[in-house]
Design a protein that fits this description.
This protein is of the alpha+beta class. It has helices at 4-15, 64-68, 93-99, and strands spanning 21-26, 35-44, 48-53, 59-63, 72-77, 82-84. The protein has three helices and six strands; from the N terminus they run αββββαββα. The chain has a six-stranded antiparallel beta sheet with strand order 4-3-2-1-5-6.
């Protein structure tokens, strides 16, 4: 289960990367290979983030839950190389009570 605090943590990570170049890999389906596009993070909202694609000056948006479910992979350029954005570890409800 993905909690609001998990999404909030990922959103804060995304907000810190606004303006950064990224690569987005989308999983289109079982038989197709993943689509890979370069973009720049424009804005981070409570439930999704918006990007501007390099190739055709278009914009797109993605839900944070897409990253948790691995239907979208984001790699962020750190100035030298692209590194995969890892979502925070999802803590189960049982384990969450232990951390509280």
């Amino acid at each position: 289960m993905i909690y609001k605090s998990d999404i909030s943590s990922l959103r804060k990570d995304m907000e810190a990367q606004i303006g950064q170049k990224i690569i987005i890999k989308e999983s289109p389906g079982k038989r197709s290979k993943p689509l890979e596009k370069e973009a720049v993070i424009e804005q981070a909202y409570p439930n999704y983030f918006r990007v501007k694609f390099d190739e055709n000056d278009r914009r797109g948006s993605y839900n944070y839950t897409d990253i948790f479910t691995k239907s979208v992979e984001v790699q962020i350029f750190d100035g030298e190389q692209f590194k995969t954005l890892e979502p925070p570890a999802i803590i189960s409800k049982k384990n969450r009570e232990e951390y509280a």
